[in-house]
Inverse folding.
């Protein structure tokens, strides 16, 4: 025992002294090891952090830990959309059953039904909005004819509408230059022109004072549709059990407004979606310029993109002008003039031009003025909290379905507010999704059977159709129907009112959990009590689904994230590839250096062997040399890596320069963290490579015979 | 009592593509306490014979017994142990470990052996430093010493384990004649004091003269063994 100890002592002594004696070699090997450890530690810490960020982003926004969808589906589930739009999924016919079966699986905490799709949403325009306000004023004045405030409002609104009509007239004139006056729709266009001219005439407004409601009717039905900036935008939504959704996804938070009340229909618009698609373009541009300037230190003078945005902002000042009625316009002038230090009497268009004449010196100031002075007078978003919006989508059958849903609020995901990947997704109730998607909910089925019963419709098969229509009692049936239609106008109107009431009831009624669960979903997120047992639970969920005869496919959150997840895989692949190349080269260099060292010491090794050192002694000596260099420089490299990571953290992290990075980082910047595991892994890796590269030189040393010591050439 | 027995030993090896018959049937015994010189011209087989006796090589045929053990029956590891415990080596070019001090070079075999305390090792190493006449050089590195001093260190290292046998292959070849003389005198002293058996090869007649017997070797066979007169 003590023999081995003594031998070890002398072995270490010789090894260390050799390291010191051949400093250059030691330093070269050491630096390679150091850089290797540095790369591994920093790389692994970045990868770990991205991994964690992505896990947080995906699991906390839409993914949960597991996802299930119908295994017969043509496509794969891609929570954040794929290259070809939304996934082609077969519906899960009965979510309640899935919930019942999977709830029994151990470690399953929650199951959230989902249906992700895209739809069109009508955004309305300035004309619609102004007319709606006008109607409000008219109504108020009718209720209380002496209301001076309402009177003033009405006058201002009228002036606003007349200005909008004038602008519209101008636009229509411009448009007319481009079309053939004798073309297919010539008659229709002439009628439109006449309507607009009528609304622009002072006589119309004299008449308006006499019968406001009729005037409004005309404006809403004939004039408003002519406004050309009316439109639809696309919306991406997840239809879900909103209540369960908010509980399940801890990153989800209400940015404005409130959660859809339990069981009710309603939608929470994605905050980022609202920013990008619904916000007044000028406000959006200002936000973007500010973001670029603040986070990336971009300057208008230097960046072409910012210059383009500034130009865009100037040319869009008109959108603000049309929003303001004369009262508001005057208020805006009153506020802007002192803020911009403009000469007395400068009008709003000139003030706006002054406000949006942006450069690096005035930007922050003008940005503040815009939001403090002007924004409170503006409708910043095309859709506001409390609006009822119409969403249209092609259903299963190909025909368009439409639902009206109330906007209860804007939703965002903590940390990844700015990411379009999750932030543009809106959250809607499941019933509305089912309506849009064209899947019959129980009440829809009831309603259609009620209608069928009232209309006296009977199910007629294709073969019997002819007979039913033209057969025996045909004339009698026809007469009967005609008569019914002729005399029952009141009943029909009552029917309409009835229908309206049902629709209203449907919009505001609360659905029970059973009703929400009963019906289709496209996929479902599963949240686990212990996310670390993901693999085990994935197998258990799959087994339970199979055993119950549910045709479900169970995938983990990473797979469900689709392209986003693959990007991280790619990133990791690149890192690993780079490491393989680096360590491959390192292996060759270290190996070479150690072979040289072994060859230079053949005589010394031979002497030791002759004197009585065993083979293992000389092999150990060489390994001790390389291992101690690796450990010391590896630790130094890891420490340096830790320093680099700390430096990155101290400088505020790696900024997310794109949407994807925002999502991957789960925030505006990546704050890498050093993991004990990554440091250990880096040391093991570096050590492994070093030992591997010392094996051949060690073998050379082992083969040295004592005879070498005898050779006389020196 | 004989410490070395060499019986009908041949040794062939390949030098490139030609078979070299380095030894062609050598028989020799060395008794304990002898101070024996192996003499012969270059290529006569002196070094091969010493390698066989020193257990760094094994014979093609015949038997080599060192300290009672048949070397061809031992494993590589056992041969190494035999060298460590029974044999001391002195090399023509000294072969000291450059990164160790003089003291540590001498101590080295003791550490390989193990079993002695630090103090015991120190007293033995210091005693030998004294005996070989360089007591003040313990802390020096080999590179700081002259050739003669280095060979003195080598002698001390060979003797430190108190081996039964010390082998020296041309120990004076790299030294001037006076220094070589001194080294041989030193070895002779050690031989007398402790009774350690010395076998050394040389082709220098002056060096040979110090031995108490000379084995002459030529073309791989022993041509004679003659005692040297007491006139050492």
């Amino acid at each position: 025992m003590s023999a081995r100890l003594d031998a070890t002592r002398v072995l270490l002594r010789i090894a260390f002294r050799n390291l010191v004696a051949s400093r250059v070699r030691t330093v070269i090997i050491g630096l390679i090891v150091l850089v290797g450890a540095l790369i591994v530690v920093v790389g692994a810490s970045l990868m770990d952090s991205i991994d964690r960020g992505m896990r947080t982003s995906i699991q906390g926004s839409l993914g949960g830990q597991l996802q299930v969808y119908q295994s017969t589906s043509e496509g794969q589930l891609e929570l954040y959309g794929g290259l070809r739009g939304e996934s082609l999924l077969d519906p899960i016919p009965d979510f309640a059953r899935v919930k019942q079966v999977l709830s029994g699986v151990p470690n399953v905490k929650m199951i959230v039904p989902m249906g992700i799709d895209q739809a069109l949403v009508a955004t309305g325009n300035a004309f619609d909005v102004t007319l709606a306000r006008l109607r409000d004023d008219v109504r108020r004045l009718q209720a209380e004819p002496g209301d001076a405030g309402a009177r003033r409002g009405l006058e201002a609104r009228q002036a606003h509408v007349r200005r909008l009509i004038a602008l519209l007239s101008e636009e229509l004139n411009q448009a007319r230059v481009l079309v053939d006056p004798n073309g297919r729709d010539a008659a229709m266009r002439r009628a439109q022109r006449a309507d607009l001219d009528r609304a622009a005439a002072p006589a119309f407004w004299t008449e308006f004072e006499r019968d406001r409601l009729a005037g409004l009717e005309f404006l809403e039905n004939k004039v408003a549709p002519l406004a050309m900036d009316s439109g639809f935008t696309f919306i991406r939504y997840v239809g879900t059990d909103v209540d369960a959704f908010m509980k399940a996804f801890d990153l989800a938070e209400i940015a404005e407004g409130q959660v859809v009340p339990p069981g009710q229909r309603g939608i929470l618009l994605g905050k980022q979606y609202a920013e990008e698609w619904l916000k007044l373009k000028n406000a959006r541009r200002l936000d973007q310029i500010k973001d670029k300037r603040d986070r990336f230190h971009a300057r208008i003078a230097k960046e072409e993109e910012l210059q383009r945005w500034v130009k865009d902002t100037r040319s869009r000042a008109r959108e603000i002008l049309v929003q303001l009625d004369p009262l508001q316009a005057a208020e805006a002038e009153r506020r802007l003039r002192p803020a911009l230090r403009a000469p007395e009497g400068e009008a709003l268009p000139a003030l706006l031009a002054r406000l949006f004449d942006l450069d690096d010196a005035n930007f922050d100031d003008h940005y503040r003025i815009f939001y403090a002075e002007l924004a409170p007078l503006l409708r910043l978003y095309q859709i506001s909290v409390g609006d009822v919006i119409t969403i249209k989508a092609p259903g299963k059958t190909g025909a368009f379905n439409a639902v009206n849903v109330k906007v209860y609020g804007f939703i965002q995901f903590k940390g990844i507010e700015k990411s379009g990947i999750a932030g543009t997704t809106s959250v809607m109730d499941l019933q509305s999704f089912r309506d849009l998607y064209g899947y019959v909910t129980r009440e829809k089925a009831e309603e259609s059977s009620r209608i069928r019963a009232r209309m006296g419709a009977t199910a007629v098969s294709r073969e019997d159709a002819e007979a039913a229509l033209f057969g025996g009692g045909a004339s009698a049936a026809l007469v009967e129907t005609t008569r019914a239609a002729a005399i029952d106008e009141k009943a029909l109107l009552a029917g309409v009112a009835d229908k309206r009431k049902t629709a209203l009831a449907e919009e505001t009624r609360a659905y029970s959990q059973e009703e929400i669960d009963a019906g289709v979903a496209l996929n479902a997120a599963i949240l686990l009590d212990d996310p670390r047992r993901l693999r085990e639970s994935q197998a258990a969920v799959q087994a339970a689904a199979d055993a119950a005869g549910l045709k479900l496919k169970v995938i983990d959150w990473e797979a469900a994230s689709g392209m986003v997840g693959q990007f991280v895989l790619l990133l990791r692949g690149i890192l690993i590839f780079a490491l393989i190349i680096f360590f491959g080269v390192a292996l060759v260099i270290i190996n070479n250096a150690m072979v040289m060292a072994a060859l230079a010491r053949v005589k010394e090794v031979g002497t030791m062997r002759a004197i009585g050192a065993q083979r293992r002694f000389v092999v150990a000596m060489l390994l001790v040399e390389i291992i101690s260099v690796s450990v010391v420089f590896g630790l130094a490299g890891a420490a340096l890596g830790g320093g680099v990571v700390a430096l990155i953290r101290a400088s505020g992290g790696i900024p997310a320069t794109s949407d994807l990075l925002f999502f991957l980082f789960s925030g505006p910047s990546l704050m890498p963290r050093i993991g004990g595991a990554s440091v250990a892994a880096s040391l093991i890796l570096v050590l492994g490579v070093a030992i591997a590269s010392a094996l051949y030189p060690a073998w050379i040393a082992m083969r040295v015979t004592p005879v070498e010591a005898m050779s006389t050439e020196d | 009592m004989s410490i070395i027995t060499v019986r009908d030993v041949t040794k062939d090896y390949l030098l490139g593509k030609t078979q070299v018959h380095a030894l062609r049937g050598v028989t020799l015994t060395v008794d304990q306490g002898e101070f024996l010189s192996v003499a012969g011209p270059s290529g006569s087989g002196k070094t091969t014979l010493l390698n066989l006796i020193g257990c760094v090589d094994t014979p093609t045929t015949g038997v080599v017994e060192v300290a009672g053990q048949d070397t061809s029956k031992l494993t590589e590891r056992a041969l190494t142990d035999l060298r460590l415990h029974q044999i001391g080596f002195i090399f023509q070019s000294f072969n000291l470990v450059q990164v160790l001090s003089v003291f540590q070079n001498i101590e080295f075999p003791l550490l390989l052996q193990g079993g002695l305390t630090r103090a015991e090792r120190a007293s033995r190493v210091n005693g030998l430093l004294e005996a070989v006449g360089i007591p003040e050089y313990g802390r020096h590195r080999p590179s700081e010493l002259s050739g003669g001093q280095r060979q003195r260190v080598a002698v001390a290292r060979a003797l430190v384990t108190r081996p039964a046998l010390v082998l020296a292959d041309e120990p004076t070849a790299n030294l001037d004649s006076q220094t070589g003389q001194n080294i041989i005198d030193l070895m002779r002293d050690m031989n007398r004091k402790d009774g350690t058996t010395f076998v050394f090869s040389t082709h220098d007649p002056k060096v040979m003269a110090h031995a108490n017997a000379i084995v002459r070797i030529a073309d791989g066979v022993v041509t004679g063994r003659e005692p040297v007169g007491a006139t050492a």
Q: What stands out?
A: Confidence is low (pLDDT under 50) at residues 472-488 of chain A. Chain A touches chain B at residues 2-7, 9-10, 13-14, 17-18, 20-21, 603-604, 606-615, 617, 705-707, 709-710, 712, 714 (CB under 8 Å). The CA atoms of residues 540 and 639 of chain A lie 42 Å apart. The first helix of chain A runs from residue 2 to 21.
